[in-house]
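Saturday, quiet lab. Running sequence design on the structure tokens for the scaffold JK sent over.
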């Protein structure tokens, strides 16, 4: 019964991932499934997992591009856009797939090419941001319901993407190009900032995982369920403004779940 329920939940989540238009939303659940199955089924996971990852990397950029054009920028429903993307994928030529995949694997799969552009522009053509990015992150923590004048953080983040020439203004609605934390660290304080922000993300990630294990009775519930469910941003990455916002509110939600579970007797206090 548990296997059927788990399979149904996994299938529902995977379906939502396929119609979302995000490549990582599809890859991450499959990678996690492989990690869970690996201890008992080493050879099948290695063989099938390797084939699946290579296949998905070959078709996902083309597939998600169509969904974004139809659903994000157009008027089509997500499910309709996904069906159309699947049909288009079946009829696509190898050259069309290769062109899209080459652009993704060379320029989007890694942040290196974007990082180089930032380093060429800052501080040569624009001074370091100093505390601006950090201040914007703490501003994002404030709930919009309590502060209606809170600015659009997505637009605020994209300002530094545009002014550093990472993308052109006309492609803002077509791509997601928010800088990763290592880039935000460099833009703030140079190479020392990159090291500092990477150290900070490791510290916050480890702290959250340890607290989750302590509060929820060990690795399976603490890290396996609560941590990976609430703190996905730590293993998916994002810009500073969204990372600090997700960290603060996920920690608050984790505390509320802890109190709720204790109140209903799902957790028992131990020495």
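Result came back. Writing it out in full:
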């Amino acid at each position: 019964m548990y296997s059927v329920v788990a399979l149904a939940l996994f299938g529902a989540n995977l379906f939502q991932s396929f119609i979302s238009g995000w490549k990582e939303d599809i890859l991450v659940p499959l990678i996690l499934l492989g990690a869970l199955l690996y201890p008992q089924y080493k050879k099948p996971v290695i063989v099938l997992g390797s084939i699946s990852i290579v296949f998905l990397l070959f078709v996902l950029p083309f597939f998600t591009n169509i969904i974004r054009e139809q659903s994000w920028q157009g008027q089509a429903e997500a499910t309709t856009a996904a069906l159309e993307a699947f049909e288009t994928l079946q009829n696509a030529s190898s050259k069309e797939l290769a062109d899209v995949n080459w652009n993704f694997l060379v320029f989007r799969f890694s942040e290196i090419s974007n990082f180089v552009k930032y380093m060429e522009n800052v501080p040569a053509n624009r001074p370091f941001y100093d505390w601006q990015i950090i201040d914007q992150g703490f501003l994002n923590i404030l709930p919009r319901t309590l502060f209606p004048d809170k600015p659009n953080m997505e637009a605020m983040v994209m300002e530094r993407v545009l002014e550093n020439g990472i993308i052109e203004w006309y492609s803002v609605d077509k791509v997601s190009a928010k800088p990763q934390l290592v880039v935000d660290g460099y833009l703030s304080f140079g190479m020392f900032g990159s090291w500092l922000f990477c150290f900070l993300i490791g510290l916050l990630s480890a702290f959250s995982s340890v607290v989750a294990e302590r509060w929820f009775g060990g690795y399976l519930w603490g890290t396996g369920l609560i941590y990976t469910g609430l703190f996905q941003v730590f293993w998916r990455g994002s810009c500073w403004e969204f990372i600090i916002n997700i960290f603060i509110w996920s920690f608050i939600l984790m505390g509320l779940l802890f109190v709720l579970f204790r109140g209903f007797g799902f957790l028992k206090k131990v020495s």
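Notes for JK: Residues 1-109 form one domain. The mean pLDDT is 87. Ask whether to fix the surface positions before the next round.
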